[in-house]
Amino acid sequence: MGFLAPWFLVGAAAVAVPLYLHLLRRHTTTPQPFSSLMFFEQRTQSSIRHRRLRYLLLLALRLALLLLLVLAFADPFINRPVASASSGKLLLLVIDNSFSMRAGSRLADAKRDATSVLASRPPSERAQVMALGSQLQVLTQPTQDSVGLSSAVNSVQPSDTRGSFGELARALHSMAESANEPIELHLFSDMQKSNMPANFQDMVLPPNVSLVLHPVATKAMPNWAVESVNAPGQVWDPKKARVEAVIAGYNTPAAMRTVSLVVNGKVAATRMVSVPASGRATVEFDSLNVPYGFSRCEVRIDSADSLPGDDSSLFAVERSDPGRVLFLHESADSRSPLYFEAALSSAAESAFTMESVPVAQASNVMLSKYAFVVLSDVSSLPSVLENNLASYVRNGGSVLVAAGTATGRLPRVPVFGANILQARYYSNQEDHFLNVGDADPAHPSVQKADRWSGVKFYYAVRVDDSGSRVVARLTDQTPILLDKSIGEGRVLLLASGLDNVTNDFPLHPNFVPFVEQTAFYLSGTERRSGSRLVDSFLQLRTSKEQAVSVEVIDPGGRRPLSLKEATTAQSYQLTSSGFYQLRLANGRQDVVGVNADRRESDLDVIPPDVLALWSGNTSKESVASSADQPATEKNKPFGLWWYVMLLVLLAAVAESWVASRYLGTRREEL
Predict the structure, then answer these.
(1) How many CB atoms lie within 10 A of CB 211?
(2) Element (H, E) at 470
(3) What does the alpha-carbon distance between residue 263 and residue 231 come to, in Å, rounded to a whole number?
(4) Comparing C-alpha atoms, which of 578, 655, 615 is closest to residue 69?
(5) Which stretch of 201-205, 255-259, 375-379, 639-643 has the lowest confidence by average pLDDT?
(6) What crossing angle do the helices spanning 641-669 and 56-73 adopt, rounded to 10°?
(7) Contacts of residue 16, Cβ cutoff 8 Å, sequence gap at least 6
(8) Can you give the CATH number for the domain in which 564 is found?
(9) How far apart (Å, rounded) are the C-alpha atoms in residues 272 and 256?
C-alpha cells in the first residue's frame, strides 16, 4: 500500500483538537440551600476529577473522522496485478487485406492460416478477428464462439487500400490501454516493405502485446504497373490535349510492354514502350479525342504478372466549349486587350476565348453569355451598360476592373462602387516605382503568382476599401488588389492598369498565372482532377452549395449516402477503385476515376532481420510463458480514495447520532 500525496498525513496532528476540547469541560454543580457554613472546614477542591475524559465513544468517532479525512487526502492506493482481473490471454487475429494481397493466392493463404490458428486454440480461450488496410477494421468482439470467428475470417475480402503497420501499432496502443489481459497478436500478411512507416518506432507494439508473424510471401515478386497518368480533367480542344503515362517495373527484367489509351471502353491509341529492368518508361499520347460531356478513360498495359489490378490507371475527362470572356476598353487602348488575351490563351489551355469590344459599342451586348467581364481603364460608362453590368453582378456574374489613369479621374470606380480618394504617381519618387509589400497567399489571384514579386508599379489609385477584402498592398500600404462581393456575384479591382504604362505587370512572368487563376476564380470554375487515390476525400459541395442535396454513385452503382448525409456531408471518402459519379440538385455533375496507391505495387518484402526485431523473436512457447509471468511485473495502482470517503461519511453520521444522544441526556439532567 502507498500514498499518492503522503504530505497530507501531517494533518493527523489535528487529532489533538478533540482531545483538548474534551478535557476543557467546565465543572458545574447545582447549588443546595444550607443554614450555615461556619462548622465546615475550608479546603481546596482538586480539579483532577474534572479533567478526566468523558463520552469516550463520541471522542473515538471524532478522532476516527479526522484520521479518515487525513487518509483520504493522502490518496492511498494498492498495487494490483493487471492480469489478475482476467485469466488467460486474448488471441487477436489480424488479416491483411490491402491491395497487394490481391497478388496470386496471398489472401486465400492468409485466411487458411488464420483458420488453422483458430482450430488449434483451447475452446475456453477468447479470440477476436480484425482486418488491416489503411485502418484496422474490427470484425468481431472478443468471444469464444468458434463458428462466429471462423465466419469472420472467411468474410474478409480484398480491398483497394494501402496497408499500414504504423496504423496497426497505433490502434493496438489504444486497445492495450483498456485491456486487462495480455494480447497474443497473430498477423497474417505479405509483410510488404512499403507498408512500413518512415520511423520504425511508430510500429513498436505495447508491452502487453506479443506478436506472432505469419508471412504469406517470403521474397519479392516481379510486377509491372501503370504508375501514374498525367491527363487533363477538362478538355476544350481535343487536338491540344496530351496524355502522359509512366510505366514502372518492380523487381522486373527489361521487357517491352504494350500501352493502350482506352476511351469509354474502346481502344483509342496504342504504343509500345521498353521498360528497363526494375525501371520506368514514359509514353505519351498526343491527342485525347473524347466526345462532349464526361468520358471514362484509362491507360492500360498488357497483363504479365500476378497483380493485374495495377495494370491500368483510370481517369475521367470532361469536354466542353471554352468559356467566353468580354473585354471592355477604351477605343484608344490597344495594349490592354493584347496583353490580357495573350496571357489568357497561353495559360488556360484554350479554356476561354476573349471578345474585345470598345466600351462605347457595348451597350447592347448580352452579358449573360460570358463567363466574366473585364473592364479595363474606362473613363466613362454609358448608363445603360453600367446598369446592365450592375444587374449582371447581382445575379451571379463577375467583373475584373482595372483602374488606370483614365479611371483615376472619376469620382468612383465603376461597378465596384468605391470612392476614389487619390491618384498616386510613383514615377516622381526616388525609385520611380513601388512593389507589392503584402499579399494574401490564399487568394487565387496571387496564390500561384509568387505574390507578384518584382512587379513595378508606377501609378495606382487609392480607393475607399471599406466593405471589401484587400488582397494585396503596395509598400506604402495602398491597396492594389481588392475583392468585393455584390449580390450573388463579385468584383475584383486592380488599382492600376493592364497596359504596360502604369506598371510592368503585363511583361512580368507573374502576369500569366495571375490571369489564369483570376479567370478560373471569376468564372466560378476550378481545374478539376479526373483522377484520385483510394482513401482520398471527394469534396461534395462548394461554399455556395451548402443547402444543395448531393448524390454519390460508387463504382458498384450503389448510393452510399443516406438522405441526411446527402444534405449535410461536406466530403466523401473514396474507399475503392473505379469511377465515382457526383450529381448535385443544381445540375452540376462530376466523374472521377479512383486508383489504388501505387506504393502497393512494389511487392518487395520486409527483410527477415527487421521482422525479427519487430516481433522480438517471439514464438508460441515464449508467448505462453510471458502470459504466466508474475503479476508483479505488470502491477497497476488501484486507488482507495472513494472507499475511505465512504468510511468518512459513515463516521460523520455515527458521530452526529452519538453526540445528539449525549447532549440530549445532559439537558435532561440539567
Answers:
(1) 21
(2) strand 469-474
(3) 13
(4) 655
(5) 639-643
(6) 160
(7) none
(8) 2.60.40
(9) 7
Identify the band that residue 623 occupies on the pLDDT scale cut at 50, 70 and 90.
Answer: very low
* Distance in angstroms (rounded) separating the CA atoms of residues 493 and 469: 10
DSSP state of 517: H
Q: CA-to-CA distance for 426 and 513, rounded, in angstroms? A: 25
How far apart CA 213 and CA 189 sit, in angstroms, is: 8
Question: Do 51 and 93 belong to one domain?
Answer: no
Q: Are residues 205 and 68 in the same domain?
A: no
CATH number at residue 486: 3.40.50.880
Write the burial class of residue 143 (CB in 10 Å: 0-12 exposed, 13-18 middle, 19+ buried): middle
Cβ contacts of 598 within 8 Å, gap of 6 or more: 225, 227, 228, 248, 310
Is 475 in the same domain as 433? yes
DSSP characters over 109-173: HHHHHHHHHHHHS-TTS-EEEEEESSSEEE---SB--HHHHHHHHHT----SSPP-HHHHHHHHH
DSSP, collapsed to helix, strand or coil, labels residue 66 as helix
Residues 165 and 195 grouped into a single domain: yes
Please give the C-alpha separations between residue 309 and each of 247, 313, 535, in angstroms, as whole numbers: 14, 9, 16
Residue 659 lies in domain? 2-30+46-74+640-669
Q: Is the same domain home to 363 and 456? A: yes
Global pTM reads 0.68
CB 464 within 8 A of CB 419: yes
Using the Cα atoms of residue 534, residue 110, residue 195 and residue 274 in order, give the sign of their dihedral.
Answer: negative
Residue 270 lies in a domain: no
Describe the strand order of the beta sheet including 531-533 as a list of residue ranges.
Answer: 531-533, 589-595, 578-584, 550-553
pLDDT tens-digit profile of 323-361?
899 999 999 999 999 999 999 888 756 788 999 999 989
Q: Tell me how far apart the alpha carbons of residues 459 and 410 are, in angstroms, rounded to a whole number.
A: 15
578 alpha-carbon distance from chain centroid:
23
**Using CA atoms in the order 212, 214, 217, 220, what is the torsion angle rounded to 10 degrees?**
-10
Domain count, the chain: 4
Task: Evaluate whether residue 300 is within a structural domain.
Answer: no
Residue of 167, 215, 311 whose CA lies nearest to 605: 215
CB 552: neighbour CB atoms within 10 A? Answer: 19
Residue 663 lies in a domain: yes
CA–CA dist 600, 9 (Å, integer): 61
Q: How far apart are CA 151 and CA 496, in angstroms?
A: 72
* 511 and 376 in a common domain: yes
* Pairwise CA distance, residues 365 & 387, whole Å: 12
3-class state of residue 344 by DSSP: helix
In a domain, 9, yes or no: yes
Please, what's the b/e burial string for 271-300 (b: 16 or more CB within 10 A of its CB; e: otherwise)? eebebeeeeebebebebbebeeebbbbbbb
Residue 133 shares a structural domain with residue 117: yes
Greatest pairwise CA separation for the chain in angstroms:
143
Beta strand pairing call for 183-189 and 90-96: parallel
- CA–CA dist 345, 322 (Å, integer): 11
* Residue that is last in its domain, among 523, 555, 580: 523
pLDDT 10s digits, 292-329: 999 999 999 997 788 999 999 999 999 988 889 999 99
* Ranges of H-type helices in 448-596: 511-523, 563-568
Contact predicate 638/79, CB 8 Å = yes
Which pLDDT score, from 0 to 100, does residue 557 have? 93
Mean local confidence (pLDDT), 233-245: 87
Could you read off the pLDDT of 218-234 as tens digits, one per residue?
999 999 999 999 998 88
